[in-house]
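# nightly structure sweep
# worker-07 picked up a monomer target from the shared queue
# config: single-sequence mode, recycle default, output format = C-alpha cells
# input follows
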Amino acid sequence: MSSAGPRDRVPLPGRITRVQLEALGVPASTVRSWVIRDDLVRIGGSTRYPEYDADQALALVEAWRPRKSA
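# output follows
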C-alpha cells in the first residue's frame, strides 16, 4: 500500500498550490514575488507546500502578463 505524501495531497476547495499555478503557466519565481509583495497570502497547507486562496491567485493570474523572450 502506498501512502500519499504532502506533495500528492489535493487541496481543499477554494485553495490552490504553487504546482497548480505552475500548471497554468506561472513560473515559481512569479509566485514567490507575489508572496513577498503580499499580493498572495498563504491560507493553509504547510511551510514547504503552502496553499493559497484560489480566487485571489486566479485574479493575479488573469492580470499577469508573461515577459516576452528577447
